[in-house]
Fold each of these.
Amino acid sequence: MSLKFVTARCKGCGICAHFCPKQVLMITELNKSAVAPGKEGDCIACGQCEMRCPDYAIFVTKEEG
Amino acid sequence: MKEALVEKYFRPGRLPHIWCPGCGNGIVTAAMVQAIDREGLAKDDVALISGIGCSSRVSGYLDFNTANTVHGRALAIATGLKMARPSLTVLVASGDGDCSAIGGNHLIHAARRNIDLTLIVFNNNIYGMTGGQYSPLTPQGSRATTAPYQTIEPAFDITALARAAGATFTARATTYHTPLLTDLIAKAIRHKGFSIVEAVTACPTNYGRQNKMGNPGQMMEWQKDHAVMKAKWDTMTEDERAGKFPIGLLSERTDAVEYTAAYDEIIRRAQA
């Protein structure tokens, strides 16, 4: 999987981090969504963040294999 | 929402939108876009009319035939558009105050006529843009700028109001239940006649803060905990229903004549 952040659109509301079932996401000191340290491999590409992001600032792609 | 849909349906250079951090309006907009995409409608065949308010900014972001019109009168203008160009799929985006207070009269008469419009009510329970005054959809007992000691007025159930006035399709979903919201908007677009979809959306800045509802994620958890699917709702007692609200397809009927079709029939008879 890969996560794409469009940081220019992110307002740091925290909805993505709140609903992430694997606690992969966090809001940084700069008030932007990002992958939490050490959680890079934990994303299961469920798409909850992409589905709920009100600012279209995070996109999930599921890679084959 | 997938990135390809953002690129396809949003006007270039208009994002980020003006809505506050955590505002659910962006989620409702995504549901609308996904519903329109799923229905396979060409952008030029869709018109989106909005009134005034936070929610009504949506017409500026999306690349359809759009108009950001006057306060409460989006339905009136959409009615005129639908009469002039019945082939267009006309969606109306309106906020709770815009639609139920300022435009309450237009709402009941558009519903009474059963004109083929799809109204999406962005119900955030408050007048957000003007600083958090209570609207007719603010739940009784809420705090607002104009009700520092809580509102004493009961709220409208806007879907029941529209249904009583003659709307032939009424539905409700929340921004937490995004796939359901998308499904219902798609069904409402397909429905021939007046359809209303109430989208319960969070206003963290002006409603949530005054009512101590927590952060945007917690406000969406509130939606999850208080919304009940229609099938389950029907089996619940009055006590169990207290404080909760039903979501899903609330009513649909096909026995009423659609307004533009009735008008075409009058033209045909007059010319015969």
Amino acid sequence: MAKYILKRALAAIVTLFVLITVVFFLVRLIPGDPFNDPKLTDTVRENLYEYYGFDKPLVVQYGIYMNNLLHGDLGPSTRYMNRTVNDMIFESFPYSADLGIRALVFAVSFGLVLGILAALNRGKKLDVVCVLVAILGTSIPDFIMGAILQYVFGVKWGLLPVAQYKGIEYTILPAAALGFYTLASVSKLMRSSMLEVVSQDYIKTAKAKGLSQGRITFRHQIRNAIMPVITVLGPTVASVLTGTFVVESIFAIPGMGKYYVDSVNNSDYSMILGMTIFYGAFLILCNLIVDIAYGLVDPRIRIGKK
Amino acid sequence: MENLTKDLFTVVGKNVEKMDSISRPTLSFWKDAWRRLKKNRWAFLGLCILVVFALLAIFAPIFSQYTYTAMDTSAVNATPSRAHWLGADSAGRDLWVRIWMGARVSLSIGLIAAVINACVGAVMGGLCGYYGGKLDMIMMRIVEILYGIPNLIVVILVMLVLGRGMTTMIVALCITGWIGTCRFVRGEVYRLKEQDYVLAAKVLGVSDFTIVVRHIIPNIMGMIVTNLCMAIPGAIFQEAFLSYIGLGIQPPMCSWGILAKEGIANLRVAPHQVLIPAFFICVTMLALNLLGDGLRDAVDPKLRGTE
């Protein structure tokens, strides 16, 4: 097990390193200049270049950046004077994390319940409803989902606040919009996985031993069926996180996604660089945790996977 | 006991000569898959919707009296009517034409990106799986690293570097998009090359190239096509997302993502401007998902001969 974890962790570190390197040079390739404002005099521009270290050769810049990164410093924003990327992330990440966790909990719990109910009532009305939800959910992009929810519940019926993030009632719509796609895909996966497990021999054995139906469902069927769902949790976290980009800008939530989109539109390079690395590192970490968790629950992975 | 000889008997009710002949035409793999797909009502419905959408995307803008950029100030935010079938947007542009112009962009981005990804992925995966060894080792490490990097971040960065537009978007979607296909094709080829018929072909002296083209690819082609069909919605979603955050297609060109974005800005005044593009995006996704599910069942070799 220790060897397995070590191997996954090493792969994650290499991935992170490649990501940082690629992103660093890609950002330098973006056409344009953060300081191309014609109002700036040459001296000011030179001073700015010196301040941000852009006057040094690229390789030196890379070395400095990597060194700073190891100390946890993502550098200053090229757009907003006196603000560092670290400040921005610390300010905005709690909002995104809060929203993301709410959406994930909503999506995974409801998705699992829906999938299980559908599988247990195969072919009946409930199953049809669950399948319909799954199909709808996977066919609507989250920004459209957000806009429609906002319109129906916020504007038309006036039940929930339309924008900002100040209390529990503010979180419901964005979390639903963000989590709906995941809810749909989790329920779809859980349903098919449940149906697959039903025909396994150990279910037959359990039945032959005379276990009650409820016990078979909870002890044998669900526990085994949940495995494939765990594997997709890593990518799911990724999709929820990137979903925050648009959902946050629709609901005017001051989270990381909104800042990311803003910095893309403002061409705030150091901000794009810093946030991309932060996002990337976070997702790689999530994938690593999911990998390890999967190895823990399913011993076959550790031994069988090559 | 009378002595009975053979010539006293004849076969009645059956034509002896024809008993050995094969009565039904032989079905090739694709004919068989097509037959099963036609039986699947939902998948066939999906296919029909897609064909209709494709035809409308090609012909609707040509036969409309409006162009997708022409502004009609008297029809600003118009709701659907006889003059403007799907209404008009905040600049008075006819939505019916804009929807189908958008469909051209969205559908072709989805299709082209998915096809390129499938081809590159299949070739890479096929090479790695068939030859194995060092090439496979190195490629798999690269793939593993690329797989760990969040796809959307790469796409955003590439769009920033290359600039906005349809071609650059396809390039951006293809940079990491092939990895999924590559991984699964490699796995399949790895499994198939150990099969007896491949060994038989090898013993008979068939070249590597012919083995791959004649024996291995036909066996996984079905799955590649299914995968491709499932990858199109992803590409269309990403296009819509990129257009939404302002990195996609450049106005006045439009795509479904742009139409939805413009509609959202105008949600309170004219909700139909969001709902109509949303409807078309959803129906297309739905059709592709239904077709993909149907294709997966139709080409699954495990299901052959079970009916």
